[in-house]
């Protein structure tokens, strides 16, 4: 049997009882190590589970799935994923490959940022399409994420922005020379995400492509920064986009939310995390008059 097991968002103890029971009986236990991270390392997992944990990087999962699925028809193999196992398309692909090989599989779900983002107080059923914000380079600055955020705002929906992670990435030079030399891991912060959004705002303004509606994204648009959701050190801050460029939320992982239309209770919740008097005043102005 091939098991895909969610680890949740905090530390080693966030695994479900069902998931832990399965891990303890499996022949091999892999940890997916590139779409997300826990606040603890592999060693902490091994100590808590009482098992050796094998790190599975992107290359192994995407190009060497045969090794991962080897003997799953005879033995129990566990594949551990931070958050929920089906939060990334790569893991859906693993299920399809297992199915092609006639291998049985089971999924053990857990909390992910897709539902834990409710901690900021914005109601989950008011979210539109989730977007990913990637690291820009000097020659590649895609803006499609911005259009999706704007589309959500135009329909009064909130937007969860998942921020880029670069793990075991190669430089262009090393890639071209075929050298297995990898860059240090990088995790996008809410500051970098806000800066990229504001650069798009400035680009659109310069080209005259700016919506005139109340939903248009500006420097004063409210956003919510979240870091290490599910961990003891979790932080939440409500700020304007401009303010968010200088907010310190500490280490990874970060997420950013751009609110749409808000219910009075949602406004009250965001007020709890307001970064400044200006933000409190903006939120107060959004409350319906009595």
From TrEMBL:
Signal peptide: none annotated. GO terms for biological process: methylation; protein histidyl modification to diphthamide. Residues 1-242 form the Tetrapyrrole methylase domain. InterPro entries: 4pyrrol_Mease (IPR000878), 4pyrrol_Methylase_sf (IPR035996), 4pyrrole_Mease_sub1 (IPR014777), 4pyrrole_Mease_sub2 (IPR014776), Dphthn_synthase (IPR004551). The keyword Signal does not apply. One of its GO terms (molecular function) is diphthine methyl ester synthase activity. Pathway: Protein modification; peptidyl-diphthamide biosynthesis. It catalyses: 2-[(3S)-amino-3-carboxypropyl]-L-histidyl-[translation elongation factor 2] + 4 S-adenosyl-L-methionine = diphthine methyl ester-[translation elongation factor 2] + 4 S-adenosyl-L-homocysteine + 3 H(+). S-adenosyl-L-methionine binds at residues 9, 84, 87, 112-113, 163, 229, 254. The keyword S-adenosyl-L-methionine applies. Belongs to the diphthine synthase family. NCBIfam families: dph5 (TIGR00522). This is diphthine methyl ester synthase. It comes from Mizuhopecten yessoensis (Japanese scallop).
